[in-house]
Design brief:
Elements lengths: L2 E4 L1 E4 L2 E9 L16 H24 L8 H13 L2 H14 L3 H17 L4 H5 L1 H18 L5 H5 L13 E5 L4 H7 L4 E6 L7 H9 L3 E3 L4 H4 L5 E5 L4 E4 L3 H22 L15 E6 L4 H7 L5 E5 L14 H14 L5 E4 L32 H6 L1 H14 L5 E5 L5 H21 L6 E7 L2 H5 L1 H4 L5 E4 L1 H9 L17 H16 L3 E4 L10 H6 L4 E4 L4 H9 L3 H6 L1 H6 L3 H14 L1
Helix pairs in contact: 1-2, 1-3, 1-6, 2-6, 3-4, 4-6, 13-15, 15-16
Protein backbone atom coordinates (compact mmCIF):
# COMPACT_ATOMS: atom_id res chain seq x y z
CA UNK A 1 0.00 0.00 0.00
CA UNK A 2 1.31 3.44 -0.93
CA UNK A 3 1.74 6.00 1.87
CA UNK A 4 2.99 9.57 2.00
CA UNK A 5 5.36 10.94 4.64
CA UNK A 6 5.80 14.69 5.00
CA UNK A 7 8.98 16.46 6.05
CA UNK A 8 11.04 19.49 5.17
CA UNK A 9 12.39 19.97 1.63
CA UNK A 10 16.10 20.80 1.87
CA UNK A 11 17.59 19.75 -1.47
CA UNK A 12 15.55 20.07 -4.63
CA UNK A 13 14.73 17.51 -7.25
CA UNK A 14 13.27 14.02 -7.43
CA UNK A 15 14.92 10.75 -6.38
CA UNK A 16 13.45 7.32 -7.04
CA UNK A 17 14.98 4.17 -5.62
CA UNK A 18 14.95 1.33 -3.13
CA UNK A 19 15.26 2.12 0.57
CA UNK A 20 18.46 1.37 2.46
CA UNK A 21 17.87 1.82 6.19
CA UNK A 22 20.32 2.90 8.85
CA UNK A 23 18.86 1.82 12.16
CA UNK A 24 19.24 4.14 15.14
CA UNK A 25 21.36 2.92 18.03
CA UNK A 26 22.35 4.22 21.43
CA UNK A 27 25.92 3.41 20.42
CA UNK A 28 27.40 5.47 17.60
CA UNK A 29 28.49 3.19 14.77
CA UNK A 30 30.07 3.68 11.37
CA UNK A 31 27.94 2.88 8.33
CA UNK A 32 29.54 1.86 5.06
CA UNK A 33 29.41 -0.78 2.38
CA UNK A 34 32.25 -3.28 2.21
CA UNK A 35 33.64 -4.40 -1.14
CA UNK A 36 33.00 -7.97 -2.24
CA UNK A 37 36.44 -9.16 -1.20
CA UNK A 38 35.93 -7.66 2.28
CA UNK A 39 32.84 -9.66 3.24
CA UNK A 40 34.71 -12.62 4.77
CA UNK A 41 36.89 -10.28 6.81
CA UNK A 42 33.79 -8.46 8.09
CA UNK A 43 32.16 -11.74 9.16
CA UNK A 44 35.39 -12.67 10.91
CA UNK A 45 35.28 -9.36 12.79
CA UNK A 46 31.76 -10.20 13.93
CA UNK A 47 32.85 -13.68 15.05
CA UNK A 48 35.81 -12.27 16.98
CA UNK A 49 33.59 -9.72 18.71
CA UNK A 50 31.09 -12.43 19.65
CA UNK A 51 33.86 -14.60 21.13
CA UNK A 52 35.23 -11.62 23.04
CA UNK A 53 31.83 -10.75 24.53
CA UNK A 54 31.11 -14.40 25.35
CA UNK A 55 34.41 -14.60 27.25
CA UNK A 56 33.56 -11.41 29.13
CA UNK A 57 30.10 -12.63 30.14
CA UNK A 58 31.44 -16.01 31.17
CA UNK A 59 34.13 -14.36 33.31
CA UNK A 60 31.55 -12.07 34.94
CA UNK A 61 29.32 -15.05 35.74
CA UNK A 62 32.28 -17.01 37.13
CA UNK A 63 33.31 -14.14 39.42
CA UNK A 64 29.86 -13.47 40.85
CA UNK A 65 29.86 -13.65 44.66
CA UNK A 66 27.86 -16.55 46.08
CA UNK A 67 25.14 -14.32 47.51
CA UNK A 68 24.62 -12.63 44.13
CA UNK A 69 24.09 -15.77 42.08
CA UNK A 70 20.66 -16.94 41.05
CA UNK A 71 18.82 -14.19 39.20
CA UNK A 72 21.99 -12.43 38.00
CA UNK A 73 23.51 -15.66 36.79
CA UNK A 74 20.27 -16.52 34.98
CA UNK A 75 20.31 -13.11 33.29
CA UNK A 76 23.88 -13.67 32.11
CA UNK A 77 22.83 -17.06 30.75
CA UNK A 78 20.06 -15.35 28.75
CA UNK A 79 22.60 -12.91 27.30
CA UNK A 80 24.96 -15.75 26.40
CA UNK A 81 22.11 -17.60 24.74
CA UNK A 82 21.13 -14.51 22.73
CA UNK A 83 24.74 -14.01 21.74
CA UNK A 84 24.77 -17.35 19.94
CA UNK A 85 21.19 -17.22 18.67
CA UNK A 86 20.92 -17.47 14.89
CA UNK A 87 18.17 -14.83 14.95
CA UNK A 88 20.86 -12.36 15.98
CA UNK A 89 24.30 -13.40 14.79
CA UNK A 90 23.15 -15.59 11.90
CA UNK A 91 20.88 -12.91 10.50
CA UNK A 92 23.60 -10.30 11.02
CA UNK A 93 25.94 -12.36 8.83
CA UNK A 94 23.24 -12.32 6.16
CA UNK A 95 23.18 -8.50 6.21
CA UNK A 96 26.95 -8.57 5.63
CA UNK A 97 26.89 -11.24 2.92
CA UNK A 98 23.83 -10.07 1.01
CA UNK A 99 23.82 -6.32 1.62
CA UNK A 100 27.54 -5.72 2.05
CA UNK A 101 26.95 -3.77 5.27
CA UNK A 102 29.90 -3.42 7.60
CA UNK A 103 29.51 -5.46 10.79
CA UNK A 104 28.38 -2.54 12.95
CA UNK A 105 25.71 -1.48 10.48
CA UNK A 106 24.57 -5.09 10.08
CA UNK A 107 24.16 -5.48 13.84
CA UNK A 108 22.18 -2.26 14.09
CA UNK A 109 19.95 -3.31 11.18
CA UNK A 110 19.18 -6.69 12.75
CA UNK A 111 18.53 -5.08 16.12
CA UNK A 112 15.90 -2.91 14.44
CA UNK A 113 14.22 -6.00 12.94
CA UNK A 114 14.19 -7.82 16.29
CA UNK A 115 13.02 -4.74 18.18
CA UNK A 116 9.97 -4.44 15.94
CA UNK A 117 9.20 -8.13 16.46
CA UNK A 118 9.39 -7.74 20.25
CA UNK A 119 7.21 -4.60 20.13
CA UNK A 120 4.50 -6.59 18.32
CA UNK A 121 4.39 -9.36 20.94
CA UNK A 122 1.28 -9.50 23.13
CA UNK A 123 3.01 -11.10 26.11
CA UNK A 124 4.40 -8.34 28.36
CA UNK A 125 7.25 -10.51 29.66
CA UNK A 126 8.43 -11.28 26.12
CA UNK A 127 8.14 -7.61 25.10
CA UNK A 128 10.45 -6.67 27.96
CA UNK A 129 13.12 -9.07 26.66
CA UNK A 130 13.83 -6.49 23.94
CA UNK A 131 16.06 -4.71 26.47
CA UNK A 132 18.22 -7.85 26.77
CA UNK A 133 18.71 -7.98 23.00
CA UNK A 134 19.65 -4.28 22.97
CA UNK A 135 22.22 -4.82 25.73
CA UNK A 136 23.78 -7.77 23.92
CA UNK A 137 24.00 -5.82 20.66
CA UNK A 138 25.62 -2.87 22.43
CA UNK A 139 28.20 -5.23 23.93
CA UNK A 140 28.87 -6.65 20.48
CA UNK A 141 29.27 -3.17 19.00
CA UNK A 142 31.79 -2.27 21.67
CA UNK A 143 33.45 -5.62 21.12
CA UNK A 144 33.89 -4.81 17.44
CA UNK A 145 35.63 -1.58 18.37
CA UNK A 146 37.95 -3.31 20.80
CA UNK A 147 38.66 -6.41 18.72
CA UNK A 148 39.93 -4.54 15.68
CA UNK A 149 40.22 -0.96 14.51
CA UNK A 150 38.52 -0.26 11.21
CA UNK A 151 41.82 0.97 9.82
CA UNK A 152 41.53 1.92 6.17
CA UNK A 153 38.53 -0.30 5.49
CA UNK A 154 36.09 2.59 5.86
CA UNK A 155 38.05 4.62 3.35
CA UNK A 156 37.65 2.01 0.62
CA UNK A 157 34.27 0.81 1.77
CA UNK A 158 32.21 3.07 -0.40
CA UNK A 159 33.64 1.43 -3.48
CA UNK A 160 31.02 0.97 -6.18
CA UNK A 161 31.82 -2.74 -6.16
CA UNK A 162 29.53 -2.89 -3.14
CA UNK A 163 26.42 -2.09 -5.14
CA UNK A 164 26.45 -5.54 -6.69
CA UNK A 165 23.96 -6.64 -4.05
CA UNK A 166 21.31 -4.28 -5.47
CA UNK A 167 21.76 -4.90 -9.15
CA UNK A 168 21.00 -1.78 -11.14
CA UNK A 169 18.28 -0.40 -8.86
CA UNK A 170 19.02 3.13 -7.60
CA UNK A 171 19.24 3.43 -3.81
CA UNK A 172 18.05 6.06 -1.33
CA UNK A 173 19.18 6.33 2.28
CA UNK A 174 16.67 6.37 5.15
CA UNK A 175 17.78 7.09 8.72
CA UNK A 176 16.75 8.69 11.98
CA UNK A 177 19.71 11.01 11.42
CA UNK A 178 23.02 10.84 9.63
CA UNK A 179 26.18 11.86 11.47
CA UNK A 180 28.47 14.31 9.63
CA UNK A 181 31.25 11.71 9.51
CA UNK A 182 28.89 9.20 7.86
CA UNK A 183 27.68 11.86 5.44
CA UNK A 184 31.22 12.42 4.26
CA UNK A 185 31.59 8.69 3.53
CA UNK A 186 28.24 8.62 1.76
CA UNK A 187 29.25 11.71 -0.24
CA UNK A 188 31.04 9.51 -2.76
CA UNK A 189 28.59 6.66 -2.53
CA UNK A 190 25.80 5.27 -4.63
CA UNK A 191 22.83 6.95 -2.93
CA UNK A 192 20.60 9.16 -5.05
CA UNK A 193 18.60 10.69 -2.19
CA UNK A 194 18.27 11.01 1.62
CA UNK A 195 15.40 10.87 4.09
CA UNK A 196 15.87 11.52 7.82
CA UNK A 197 13.49 11.63 10.78
CA UNK A 198 15.14 14.69 12.31
CA UNK A 199 16.94 17.80 11.14
CA UNK A 200 16.19 21.20 9.66
CA UNK A 201 16.97 23.22 6.54
CA UNK A 202 20.50 24.01 7.70
CA UNK A 203 21.27 20.80 9.58
CA UNK A 204 24.47 19.17 8.42
CA UNK A 205 22.66 16.38 6.59
CA UNK A 206 20.75 18.99 4.57
CA UNK A 207 23.89 20.97 3.75
CA UNK A 208 25.82 17.96 2.52
CA UNK A 209 22.82 16.70 0.52
CA UNK A 210 22.74 20.06 -1.28
CA UNK A 211 26.48 19.89 -1.85
CA UNK A 212 25.98 16.48 -3.47
CA UNK A 213 23.13 17.97 -5.51
CA UNK A 214 20.77 15.13 -4.64
CA UNK A 215 17.17 15.37 -3.35
CA UNK A 216 16.66 15.19 0.40
CA UNK A 217 13.82 15.45 2.90
CA UNK A 218 14.58 15.89 6.62
CA UNK A 219 12.41 16.15 9.72
CA UNK A 220 10.17 13.37 8.40
CA UNK A 221 9.56 12.13 11.96
CA UNK A 222 8.69 8.42 11.74
CA UNK A 223 10.12 7.75 8.28
CA UNK A 224 12.75 5.27 9.45
CA UNK A 225 10.06 3.25 11.26
CA UNK A 226 7.40 3.37 8.57
CA UNK A 227 9.72 2.54 5.68
CA UNK A 228 10.96 -1.02 5.29
CA UNK A 229 14.14 -2.28 3.72
CA UNK A 230 13.83 -2.42 -0.11
CA UNK A 231 10.60 -0.38 -0.27
CA UNK A 232 10.42 1.67 -3.46
CA UNK A 233 10.52 5.36 -2.57
CA UNK A 234 9.98 8.65 -4.35
CA UNK A 235 11.69 11.60 -2.66
CA UNK A 236 10.16 14.89 -3.72
CA UNK A 237 12.83 17.36 -2.63
CA UNK A 238 10.75 20.32 -3.81
CA UNK A 239 7.60 19.57 -1.80
CA UNK A 240 9.20 17.73 1.14
CA UNK A 241 7.21 14.55 0.51
CA UNK A 242 8.32 10.91 0.58
CA UNK A 243 6.04 8.46 -1.22
CA UNK A 244 6.44 4.83 -0.13
CA UNK A 245 5.68 2.14 -2.72
CA UNK A 246 4.08 4.55 -5.22
CA UNK A 247 1.54 3.40 -7.80
CA UNK A 248 2.64 2.99 -11.42
CA UNK A 249 0.91 6.24 -12.43
CA UNK A 250 2.60 8.25 -9.66
CA UNK A 251 5.94 6.67 -10.49
CA UNK A 252 5.68 7.67 -14.13
CA UNK A 253 4.73 11.23 -13.22
CA UNK A 254 7.83 11.59 -11.05
CA UNK A 255 10.05 9.99 -13.67
CA UNK A 256 8.82 12.65 -16.09
CA UNK A 257 9.70 15.34 -13.53
CA UNK A 258 13.15 13.78 -13.16
CA UNK A 259 13.75 14.11 -16.89
CA UNK A 260 12.57 17.74 -16.86
CA UNK A 261 14.94 18.48 -13.98
CA UNK A 262 17.85 16.94 -15.87
CA UNK A 263 17.09 19.14 -18.89
CA UNK A 264 17.03 22.25 -16.67
CA UNK A 265 20.39 21.31 -15.15
CA UNK A 266 21.87 20.82 -18.60
CA UNK A 267 20.64 24.29 -19.59
CA UNK A 268 22.16 25.88 -16.49
CA UNK A 269 25.36 23.95 -17.04
CA UNK A 270 26.03 26.05 -20.12
CA UNK A 271 26.56 29.07 -17.84
CA UNK A 272 29.47 27.43 -16.00
CA UNK A 273 32.24 29.53 -17.45
CA UNK A 274 30.26 32.68 -18.25
CA UNK A 275 31.61 35.63 -16.19
CA UNK A 276 29.19 36.61 -13.40
CA UNK A 277 28.49 40.23 -14.37
CA UNK A 278 25.20 42.01 -13.72
CA UNK A 279 23.22 43.92 -16.33
CA UNK A 280 24.73 47.19 -15.07
CA UNK A 281 28.28 45.88 -15.31
CA UNK A 282 28.97 44.88 -11.68
CA UNK A 283 31.37 41.93 -11.38
CA UNK A 284 30.26 39.38 -8.82
CA UNK A 285 32.60 36.79 -7.28
CA UNK A 286 31.07 33.31 -7.09
CA UNK A 287 33.14 31.02 -4.87
CA UNK A 288 32.75 27.42 -3.74
CA UNK A 289 32.38 25.80 -0.33
CA UNK A 290 34.31 22.51 -0.06
CA UNK A 291 34.85 19.87 2.62
CA UNK A 292 37.80 17.87 1.28
CA UNK A 293 40.73 18.57 -1.08
CA UNK A 294 39.20 16.41 -3.81
CA UNK A 295 36.21 18.78 -3.90
CA UNK A 296 38.42 21.47 -5.46
CA UNK A 297 38.14 19.76 -8.83
CA UNK A 298 34.34 19.89 -8.64
CA UNK A 299 34.54 23.58 -7.75
CA UNK A 300 36.61 24.37 -10.84
CA UNK A 301 34.37 22.20 -13.00
CA UNK A 302 31.32 24.14 -11.78
CA UNK A 303 32.91 27.48 -12.68
CA UNK A 304 33.91 28.74 -9.23
CA UNK A 305 36.53 31.52 -9.22
CA UNK A 306 37.99 30.34 -5.94
CA UNK A 307 37.18 28.58 -2.66
CA UNK A 308 35.38 30.82 -0.20
CA UNK A 309 35.15 28.18 2.51
CA UNK A 310 37.26 25.05 3.00
CA UNK A 311 35.71 23.32 6.02
CA UNK A 312 38.89 21.88 7.52
CA UNK A 313 37.09 20.05 10.35
CA UNK A 314 36.26 17.17 8.04
CA UNK A 315 39.95 16.25 8.03
CA UNK A 316 39.58 15.73 11.80
CA UNK A 317 36.44 13.60 11.81
CA UNK A 318 35.74 9.87 11.67
CA UNK A 319 39.26 9.04 12.87
CA UNK A 320 38.57 7.50 16.26
CA UNK A 321 40.12 10.49 18.03
CA UNK A 322 43.44 10.30 16.14
CA UNK A 323 43.80 13.90 14.97
CA UNK A 324 45.73 14.67 11.76
CA UNK A 325 49.27 15.93 12.35
CA UNK A 326 50.80 19.00 10.74
CA UNK A 327 52.23 17.20 7.73
CA UNK A 328 48.96 15.41 6.93
CA UNK A 329 47.05 18.69 7.13
CA UNK A 330 49.66 20.47 5.03
CA UNK A 331 49.37 17.88 2.27
CA UNK A 332 45.57 18.25 2.26
CA UNK A 333 45.64 22.05 2.15
CA UNK A 334 48.36 22.09 -0.48
CA UNK A 335 46.39 19.65 -2.64
CA UNK A 336 43.39 21.99 -2.60
CA UNK A 337 45.51 25.08 -3.27
CA UNK A 338 47.34 23.45 -6.19
CA UNK A 339 44.08 22.07 -7.62
CA UNK A 340 42.59 25.59 -7.72
CA UNK A 341 45.35 26.66 -10.14
CA UNK A 342 46.17 30.03 -8.64
CA UNK A 343 42.61 30.95 -7.60
CA UNK A 344 42.16 31.95 -3.93
CA UNK A 345 41.44 29.35 -1.26
CA UNK A 346 39.96 30.39 2.09
CA UNK A 347 40.63 27.76 4.75
CA UNK A 348 38.48 27.91 7.87
CA UNK A 349 40.22 26.71 11.01
CA UNK A 350 38.63 23.68 12.62
CA UNK A 351 34.98 24.31 13.51
CA UNK A 352 34.32 21.44 15.87
CA UNK A 353 31.34 21.27 18.19
CA UNK A 354 27.53 21.55 17.95
CA UNK A 355 26.51 19.20 15.08
CA UNK A 356 30.11 18.20 14.29
CA UNK A 357 31.62 16.56 17.40
CA UNK A 358 34.92 14.71 17.42
CA UNK A 359 35.50 11.26 18.85
CA UNK A 360 38.04 13.00 21.05
CA UNK A 361 37.97 16.67 22.00
CA UNK A 362 41.54 17.12 23.17
CA UNK A 363 42.35 17.88 26.79
CA UNK A 364 38.72 18.38 27.67
CA UNK A 365 37.45 15.02 26.40
CA UNK A 366 34.34 16.85 25.30
CA UNK A 367 31.59 14.81 23.70
CA UNK A 368 28.52 16.19 21.98
CA UNK A 369 26.11 14.04 23.94
CA UNK A 370 27.65 15.06 27.27
CA UNK A 371 27.15 18.78 26.64
CA UNK A 372 23.85 20.39 27.61
CA UNK A 373 23.98 22.86 24.73
CA UNK A 374 26.86 22.16 22.34
CA UNK A 375 25.96 25.13 20.12
CA UNK A 376 26.81 27.42 23.03
CA UNK A 377 29.72 25.41 24.37
CA UNK A 378 33.40 24.88 23.64
CA UNK A 379 33.33 24.96 19.85
CA UNK A 380 35.03 26.60 16.85
CA UNK A 381 37.63 29.23 17.82
CA UNK A 382 36.91 28.64 21.51
CA UNK A 383 38.11 25.07 21.21
CA UNK A 384 41.12 26.04 19.10
CA UNK A 385 42.24 28.63 21.67
CA UNK A 386 41.72 26.06 24.43
CA UNK A 387 44.08 23.70 22.53
CA UNK A 388 46.97 26.03 21.59
CA UNK A 389 49.27 23.22 20.48
CA UNK A 390 46.70 21.81 18.09
CA UNK A 391 45.79 25.30 16.87
CA UNK A 392 49.37 26.33 16.08
CA UNK A 393 49.86 23.00 14.32
CA UNK A 394 46.92 23.74 12.02
CA UNK A 395 48.06 27.32 11.45
CA UNK A 396 51.56 26.15 10.50
CA UNK A 397 50.08 23.67 8.01
CA UNK A 398 47.94 26.39 6.41
CA UNK A 399 50.84 28.86 6.29
CA UNK A 400 53.05 26.24 4.62
CA UNK A 401 50.34 25.59 2.01
CA UNK A 402 50.21 29.33 1.28
CA UNK A 403 53.62 29.01 -0.39
CA UNK A 404 51.81 27.21 -3.26
CA UNK A 405 49.05 29.74 -4.00
CA UNK A 406 46.76 32.42 -2.64
CA UNK A 407 45.48 31.38 0.78
CA UNK A 408 43.30 33.12 3.34
CA UNK A 409 42.65 31.97 6.91
CA UNK A 410 39.09 32.22 8.22
CA UNK A 411 38.36 32.09 11.96
CA UNK A 412 34.93 30.67 12.95
CA UNK A 413 32.53 32.01 15.60
CA UNK A 414 34.48 35.07 16.70
CA UNK A 415 32.51 36.86 19.41
CA UNK A 416 35.16 38.57 21.57
CA UNK A 417 37.87 41.09 20.78
CA UNK A 418 40.13 39.02 23.03
CA UNK A 419 39.62 36.09 20.63
CA UNK A 420 40.72 38.30 17.74
CA UNK A 421 43.90 39.33 19.56
CA UNK A 422 44.73 35.77 20.67
CA UNK A 423 44.14 34.45 17.15
CA UNK A 424 46.46 36.98 15.53
CA UNK A 425 49.10 36.26 18.18
CA UNK A 426 48.79 32.53 17.42
CA UNK A 427 49.25 33.21 13.69
CA UNK A 428 52.34 35.32 14.39
CA UNK A 429 53.74 32.61 16.67
CA UNK A 430 53.13 29.90 14.07
CA UNK A 431 54.83 32.02 11.42
CA UNK A 432 57.83 32.56 13.70
CA UNK A 433 58.08 28.81 14.35
CA UNK A 434 58.21 28.18 10.60
CA UNK A 435 60.88 30.85 10.18
CA UNK A 436 62.93 29.27 12.95
CA UNK A 437 62.59 25.86 11.29
CA UNK A 438 63.50 27.25 7.88
CA UNK A 439 60.17 26.20 6.34
CA UNK A 440 58.67 28.12 3.43
CA UNK A 441 55.39 29.94 3.83
CA UNK A 442 53.51 32.72 2.07
CA UNK A 443 51.54 35.82 2.88
CA UNK A 444 48.01 35.23 4.14
CA UNK A 445 45.06 37.39 5.04
CA UNK A 446 43.21 36.53 8.25
CA UNK A 447 39.44 36.97 8.40
CA UNK A 448 36.59 36.42 10.84
CA UNK A 449 33.30 34.67 10.41
CA UNK A 450 30.32 36.76 11.45
CA UNK A 451 27.92 34.14 12.76
CA UNK A 452 26.90 35.42 16.20
CA UNK A 453 24.98 38.66 16.77
CA UNK A 454 27.81 40.01 18.94
CA UNK A 455 30.19 39.94 15.97
CA UNK A 456 27.68 41.67 13.70
CA UNK A 457 26.94 44.36 16.28
CA UNK A 458 30.63 45.16 16.87
CA UNK A 459 31.72 44.65 13.26
CA UNK A 460 33.48 48.06 13.16
CA UNK A 461 35.81 46.96 15.97
CA UNK A 462 36.43 43.54 14.46
CA UNK A 463 37.39 45.12 11.16
CA UNK A 464 40.25 46.88 12.95
CA UNK A 465 41.81 43.45 13.58
CA UNK A 466 40.86 41.36 10.54
CA UNK A 467 41.56 41.70 6.82
CA UNK A 468 38.15 40.42 5.70
CA UNK A 469 34.89 38.96 7.00
CA UNK A 470 32.62 36.15 5.87
CA UNK A 471 29.02 36.00 7.05
CA UNK A 472 27.93 32.52 8.13
CA UNK A 473 24.18 32.92 7.83
CA UNK A 474 23.30 29.44 9.14
CA UNK A 475 24.58 30.10 12.65
CA UNK A 476 23.78 33.82 12.55
CA UNK A 477 20.10 33.00 12.06
CA UNK A 478 20.25 30.26 14.72
CA UNK A 479 21.79 32.50 17.37
CA UNK A 480 19.75 35.59 16.49
CA UNK A 481 16.43 33.75 16.71
CA UNK A 482 17.45 31.32 19.51
CA UNK A 483 16.50 28.31 17.38
CA UNK A 484 18.36 25.01 17.15
CA UNK A 485 18.63 24.68 13.38
CA UNK A 486 18.93 20.87 13.59
CA UNK A 487 15.77 20.43 15.71
CA UNK A 488 12.78 19.59 13.53
CA UNK A 489 10.41 20.65 16.34
CA UNK A 490 11.37 24.31 15.89
CA UNK A 491 12.91 24.29 12.42
CA UNK A 492 9.79 25.96 10.97
CA UNK A 493 10.78 29.04 13.00
CA UNK A 494 14.20 29.20 11.34
CA UNK A 495 13.59 32.26 9.19
CA UNK A 496 16.30 33.84 6.99
CA UNK A 497 13.80 36.60 6.12
CA UNK A 498 13.40 37.69 9.74
CA UNK A 499 13.89 41.50 9.89
CA UNK A 500 16.47 41.20 12.69
CA UNK A 501 18.56 38.78 10.62
CA UNK A 502 18.41 41.01 7.55
CA UNK A 503 19.42 44.06 9.60
CA UNK A 504 22.50 42.26 10.95
CA UNK A 505 23.55 41.06 7.49
CA UNK A 506 22.98 44.45 5.86
CA UNK A 507 24.87 46.24 8.63
CA UNK A 508 27.84 43.89 8.36
CA UNK A 509 28.04 44.33 4.57
CA UNK A 510 27.72 48.12 4.81
CA UNK A 511 30.38 48.48 7.54
CA UNK A 512 32.78 46.19 5.67
CA UNK A 513 32.42 48.15 2.44
CA UNK A 514 32.86 51.47 4.30
CA UNK A 515 36.08 50.10 5.83
CA UNK A 516 37.23 48.83 2.42
CA UNK A 517 37.32 45.28 3.67
CA UNK A 518 36.35 42.27 1.57
CA UNK A 519 33.05 40.76 2.69
CA UNK A 520 31.33 37.59 1.53
CA UNK A 521 28.45 35.36 2.56
CA UNK A 522 29.27 31.66 2.87
CA UNK A 523 26.11 30.38 4.56
CA UNK A 524 23.18 28.70 2.84
CA UNK A 525 21.62 32.05 1.88
CA UNK A 526 24.50 32.59 -0.55
CA UNK A 527 23.51 29.52 -2.57
CA UNK A 528 19.76 30.15 -2.56
CA UNK A 529 18.67 32.12 -5.66
CA UNK A 530 15.73 33.48 -3.65
CA UNK A 531 18.20 35.69 -1.75
CA UNK A 532 20.54 36.67 -4.60
CA UNK A 533 18.72 39.90 -5.48
CA UNK A 534 18.43 40.92 -1.84
CA UNK A 535 22.14 40.39 -1.10
CA UNK A 536 23.13 42.22 -4.29
CA UNK A 537 20.89 45.10 -3.23
CA UNK A 538 22.72 45.21 0.13
CA UNK A 539 26.00 45.67 -1.75
CA UNK A 540 27.34 42.12 -1.57
CA UNK A 541 29.62 41.18 -4.45
CA UNK A 542 31.09 37.90 -3.15
CA UNK A 543 29.01 34.73 -2.65
CA UNK A 544 30.36 31.35 -1.55
CA UNK A 545 28.25 28.22 -1.94
CA UNK A 546 28.31 24.54 -2.81
CA UNK A 547 29.47 23.99 -6.39
CA UNK A 548 26.09 22.49 -7.32
CA UNK A 549 24.40 25.83 -6.55
CA UNK A 550 26.70 28.06 -8.61
CA UNK A 551 24.86 27.92 -11.94
CA UNK A 552 21.44 28.83 -10.53
CA UNK A 553 22.86 31.78 -8.60
CA UNK A 554 24.89 32.91 -11.62
CA UNK A 555 21.73 32.93 -13.75
CA UNK A 556 20.15 35.27 -11.20
CA UNK A 557 23.22 37.52 -11.16
CA UNK A 558 23.24 37.81 -14.95
CA UNK A 559 19.63 39.03 -14.88
CA UNK A 560 20.13 41.56 -12.07
CA UNK A 561 20.52 45.35 -12.20
CA UNK A 562 22.17 46.28 -8.90
CA UNK A 563 21.30 49.99 -9.15
CA UNK A 564 17.58 49.28 -9.38
CA UNK A 565 17.83 46.62 -6.71
CA UNK A 566 19.61 48.97 -4.28
CA UNK A 567 16.93 51.61 -4.85
CA UNK A 568 14.22 49.09 -3.90
CA UNK A 569 15.99 47.82 -0.77
CA UNK A 570 14.69 50.29 1.84
CA UNK A 571 10.99 49.34 1.52
CA UNK A 572 11.89 45.65 1.73
CA UNK A 573 13.94 46.14 4.90
CA UNK A 574 11.13 48.18 6.47
CA UNK A 575 8.36 45.75 5.52
CA UNK A 576 6.57 43.64 8.09
CA UNK A 577 7.08 40.67 5.77
CA UNK A 578 10.38 41.21 3.89
CA UNK A 579 9.92 37.98 1.94
CA UNK A 580 6.66 39.16 0.37
CA UNK A 581 8.02 42.64 -0.27
CA UNK A 582 11.14 41.20 -1.92
CA UNK A 583 9.06 38.90 -4.12
CA UNK A 584 6.96 41.84 -5.29
CA UNK A 585 9.72 44.41 -5.75
CA UNK A 586 13.12 42.81 -6.18
CA UNK A 587 11.98 39.67 -7.99
CA UNK A 588 9.83 41.53 -10.46
CA UNK A 589 12.52 44.12 -11.13
CA UNK A 590 15.22 41.51 -11.78
CA UNK A 591 12.93 39.76 -14.26
CA UNK A 592 12.75 42.93 -16.31
Amino acid sequence: MSIQIFGMPVSRGVAIGRAVLIASSRVDVAHYFVPIDGVDHEIERLRDARDLVAAELTAIKRDLPADARGELAALLDVHLMLLHDEALTGATKAWISERHYNAEWALSAQLEVLARQFDDMEDEYLRERKADVEQVVERLLRGLTRSESEGDLGAIAMSRQARDFAGEDPLVLVANDVAPADMMQFKRSIFTGFVTDVGGRTSHTAIVARSMDIPAVVGAREASRLIRQDDWLVIDGDAGVVIVNPSTIVLEEYRFRQRQSELERARLDRLRHTPAITLDGEAVELLANIELPDDAGSALEAGAVGVGLFRSEFLFMNRGGDLPDEDEQFEAYRAAVVAMQGLPVTIRTVDIGADKPLDRMGLHELRHEHTLNPSLGLRAIRWSLAEPGMFRQQLRAILRASAFGKVRILIPMVAQLSEARQTLEAVARARQQLDDAGRAHGAVEVGAMVEVPAAALMIDRLLQHFDFVSIGTNDLIQYTLAIDRADEAVSHLFDPWHPAVLQLIAGTIRSSLDARRHVSVCGEMAGDPAFTDLLLAMGLRSFSMHPAQLAAVKQRVLRADTRKLAAALAPVMAAESPAKAAAQMLGGMAAH
